[in-house]
Write a structure and sequence with these properties.
The protein is mainly alpha-helical. The protein has helices spanning 38-43, 81-92, 104-107, 156-161, 178-187, 191-200, 207-219, 227-235, 254-264, 325-335, 360-371; strands spanning 278-279, 284-285. Strands 1-2 form a two-stranded antiparallel ribbon. A hairpin with a 4-residue loop joins strand 1 (278-279) and strand 2.
């Protein structure tokens, strides 16, 4: 007698990730088949079986302890490969604007350190934003975690969806249905249920999850490939009090090393003292920083982005008033104005605004050094690029 062998198929159900998990659900471990996540494969240049490494990037020794440390505003919100991949897709997707004309990447371009080469960005209907789009490189190392130039967003997560709901920027304001309308749209886009399942374990789309994913992607944009990084790796010495940042960099020109010396040396010792506020190796702003004296009587306390890739991220300042780094250095040399919000480190004798009075040669040297912070590898890294099959 012939017997039939019955086959049993086992269905592995993904656990629900919840609406606002404290940490992202780990990447699913479901065995992949050629038909897994077909909509992702059809629309995106993303392989769900081999996601880019966002969660544990290889960084130089002098970055040890920074990710997850006190400077990291994402220390309680770890990055996962699937979460950052979802964030990358959202960042480049024009579905996030009401009329499908712009994305986050329209105003934060990878080639400029995720800033905008225009003084003011252009919204979904052609209106201009009131402030210059801030560089996003090394955003995770602003310890207080507040965002926008005026620090009005309490976290990076909350910042990520403000532009989406802005009536000038991306248009999903109350008049256009708010974020609820966007969620409804994303539910109808074939690749999003798959991406949310990949990142959170189920296809549920919420504002909190969109915020988490976008924040993970932005926090993954860490710069460690500039000429300064390559040179500093050769002189880095954790046994030294300054960890070697004051050591001349091999391969730098005399002008670049002079600029490095000015950057890291305090004014009383003949330097410019830039590192008192912009700390290596991330060149992010110190938590206690205040404003930089752009206007007399200023009461607003601004923040600034990291200086990594600053040479590609102009115009400069919150209103984009400076078009060149030379103008920026000139401001710190002779142009600092007094006001209630001025940072104490920018005050000289008697509490008056500091006047560095740098020579023209030293100003050029400081600009030359700032250019060495440009990370060509980061601004061309495929894992930060547009993921769509356009």
């Amino acid at each position: 007698m012939k017997h039939l062998l019955a086959s049993v198929c086992c269905l592995l159900l993904a656990a629900c990730g919840g609406d606002t998990p404290a940490t992202p659900t780990p990447d699913p471990v479901t065995p992949a088949t050629p038909s897994t996540f077909p909509a992702i494969r059809a629309s995106l240049i993303v392989d769900p079986e081999a996601l880019p490494n966002y969660a544990a990037p290889t960084l130089p020794a002098y970055y040890a302890g920074l990710i997850g440390g006190p400077q990291d505003n994402g220390r309680t919100a770890p990055v996962s490969n699937a979460g950052a991949t979802l964030g990358r897709v959202l960042f480049f997707d024009r579905e996030l604007s009401v009329n499908r004309t712009i994305s986050c990447a329209s105003c934060h371009t990878q080639s400029t350190g995720f800033s905008d080469p225009r003084q003011f960005s252009v919204g979904f209907e052609g209106g201009q934003t009131p402030m210059h789009s801030m560089r996003l490189v090394n955003a995770r190392f602003w310890a207080p975690g507040t965002f926008f130039w005026d620090r009005r967003a309490p976290t990076l997560e909350s910042q990520t969806t403000d532009p989406i709901q802005d009536p000038v920027e991306m248009g999903f304001d109350a008049a256009h249905g708010g974020f609820t309308a966007l969620v409804g749209r994303l539910q109808g886009v074939t690749y999003y249920p798959e991406l949310f399942t990949l990142a959170f374990g189920d296809p549920v789309i919420t504002q909190a999850r969109v915020q988490q994913a976008l924040a993970q992607y932005v926090r993954s944009i860490v710069s460690a490939g500039s000429r300064w990084d390559q040179g500093y790796a050769q002189v880095f010495n954790p046994a030294l009090q300054d960890r070697g940042v004051n050591t001349p960099i091999p391969g730098f020109t005399a002008e670049e090393n002079r600029g490095r010396q000015l950057f890291f040396t305090p004014p009383p010792q003949g330097g410019a003292g830039c590192s008192a506020c912009h700390v290596a190796p991330t060149f992010a702003l110190t938590p206690n920083s205040r404003s930089n004296g752009l206007d007399a009587g200023e009461t607003r306390i601004f923040k600034s982005p990291s200086l990594k890739s600053v040479s590609g991220g102009g115009p400069f300042m919150h209103d984009g008033r400076f078009s060149t780094l030379a103008q920026v250095v000139e401001h710190y040399t002779n142009g600092i104005q007094n006001g209630p919000a001025l940072d104490p480190r920018l005050r000289g004798p008697g509490g008056q605004p500091l006047r560095l009075n740098l020579s023209q040669a030293d100003q050029l040297a400081l600009v030359a050094f700032l250019i060495t912070l440009t990370d060509e590898a980061m601004v061309t890294d495929a894992k930060f690029s547009d993921p769509f099959r356009r």
